Amino acid sequence: MAAFEAFLDDGGIVEVDDDMPAEYRQAVFAFIEMHANSELMGGLTERDWIPRTPGLRHKMSVLAKTQDEIGHGHLLYMVAADMQIKTREEMLEDLFAGKSRFHNVFHYQAVTWGDQVAIAFLVDAAALASQQAVFKNCSYGPYRRILKRIISEEGFHMRLGEDRMMRIAQGTDTQKEIFQGALDRWFWPALQLFGPDSKPDDVLLRWHIKSERNEVLRDKWVQKFVPMLQSYGFTVPAPDLSYDEEAGKWDVGPIDWEPLKRTLAQGGPDSARRINEAKDNWERTRWVRDAMDRAAAVPA
Amino acid sequence: MTVDVTPAVREFLLAIADDKHLMGQQHAEWIGVTPFLEEDLAFCSIGQDELGHAALLYELLAGDDDAAIDSLAYDRGADEYRSCHLVELATDDWTVAFARHWLFDTADQHRWTLVSQSTVPELRDVAARVEREERFHRMHADNMLDVLLADATARDRFVTAVAALAPLTQGLFEPVPGEAEAVATGVAAGPFAAEWDAFVETIEARIGAVDWGSAPSQAQRTQRSNDWQALMARMREVIDLDLSATW
Ligand SMILES: [Fe+2]
Ligand SMILES: [Fe+2]
After folding, report:
1. Which of B38, B44, B48 to mutate to test binding with chain A, by most A CBs within 10 Å of its CB?
2. Is the pTM value of this prediction over 0.90?
3. Which ligand gives the minimal distance to the CA of A39?
4. What is the pLDDT of residues B70-106, one digit of tens each?
5. Which domains, ranges and CATH numbers included, belong to chain B?
6. pLDDT reading at A230 higher than 90
7. CA B116, CA A191: separation in Å to the nearest integer?
8. Residue A300: pLDDT band by 50, 70, 90 thresholds?
């Protein structure tokens, strides 16, 4: 392991067929699997509102975004499956059985159209920041290459969210009220997406999967979004929010990590519905996959 | 860019546009819940194309402005839409959704062929652009069909879904009154219904004889189906929150 870690510290890149310690393989796999699950579950969170998108061309761009997310999931499942720990089928079965993790934010329901916009704006920005930090110095080559594409598309999602947020900010009182409601629901989950402060012995940092500590990324997000939301006339739902003149920094006050922990145990506000619906649907369409498997088994 | 057409020809174009719009709307329901990820992506992409084709046609009638296009897409009274009942039908069964995609896109090819040599140059351009994308829709349906039809269980399910949709499929070929004028002025090469036999031949060559049943009562596409109201309410849910809002 020491030699392997020295190799990583030297900027070494691991490819799928290279020798690697089992712990490294497992940690990278788990990280990519969770990322893949999150892309898929994110798509499912957004799909609730797609048919209700106000506007024909608007609906096309929202569909394109969600297609990207499912596409990211698709690519990531392939990269994860190549590591030969689980097949894609097994990963999906585990996900729908409630055995796998996915990002905290997708354990919540989008209850208004404002939530749909808040997700594209706040959550995609948080996810993008995390992914950029992974991409920067990622020691696992196949993941790093996929991230490059994902990041370019996520940047487009964030801008789409920002455009829509700006239209709302310049819009009617009803629109502003709806978006404020969405902010009240999504600000904290989006902030918690970065996770609690990184532990000093975090192997993901040591093995150059992550390049930045959670608290650093979270703070950058706070410094960007708090003033931005305020400048558009929205209220940041943090009762203890304060500004340190000297440091020129915003502080959102103490963070309650209990909601995040509940989502990790599949006990978030919408976890059960989300997983059960996905599972029901997976079972209902099993016959199609079976037919495909049988077709593939027949020699051409 | 708008075209200068008579009210009758406008109705004819609206029938094509409304079918496309609602077909895209229905496909948009399927992202993330088809049998596998590649199919999610395909449905999502096809849905976007259908909405895009509708937007191109609405644009010919209303001009290239989101608000004008949306007003045509969402603000008409129920009796002013010219969609057929097949695309209004609600379903939570992917087999039905896929069968409808195949039936619709097979029929659609015939319809666009009719306007590919139109006397309206802008419509010719739209037809050419649509066909470039539709080719992939048909290819997608075909590849999936190869799999489903090769498997006894799957074939059974699929043929049952087609049988359930067969009567409504006839409504796809029902003209609006303006079609006669569209044909007389060369906007379309012939009536859509004249393509029915060729359409049936394509379908039956693939899955065998179909009992097409009796066509739905659409009153020349002026009458909406039972599923219409819920469909429109869903499409307008956000719009109706505040009619003066731009989202
Ligand atoms: Fe994504
Ligand atoms: Fe995204």
Report:
1. B44
2. yes
3. 1
4. 999 999 999 999 999 999 999 999 999 999 999 999 9
5. 7-241 (1.20.1260.10)
6. yes
7. 53
8. low
Chosen for mutation from A41, A63, A177 (greatest number of chain B CBs closer than 10 Å) is A63
Question: Are B247 and A291 an interchain contact pair (Cβ–Cβ within 8 Å)?
Answer: no
Average pLDDT over residues B9-28: 97
Phi, psi of A15 (to 5 degrees): -105, 165
Please name the residue of chain B whose CA is at the shortest distance from the CA of residue A168: B247
Do the bridges between strand A242-244 and strand A249-251 make them parallel or antiparallel, or are there none, so unpaired? antiparallel
Could you tell me which chain B residue has the CA closest to the CA of A293? B147
Sequence-separated (6 or more) residues with CB below 8 Å from residue B69: A56, A57, B55, B58, B59, B62, B63
* Rounded-to-integer distance, Cα A104 and Cα A45, Å: 12
In 3D space, the residue among B33, B16, B164 whose CA is nearest the CA of residue B99 turns out to be: B164
For residue A186, the enclosing domain spans: 2-284
User: At which residue do the structure tokens 């999931």 appear?
Assistant: A73
pLDDT band at A148 (very low <50, low <70, confident <90, very high): very high
Within its chain, how far is the Cα of B207 from the centroid? 21
pLDDT tens per residue across span A23-33: 999 999 999 99
Residue A291 lies in a domain: no
Read off the CATH number of the domain in which A215 is found.
1.20.1260.10
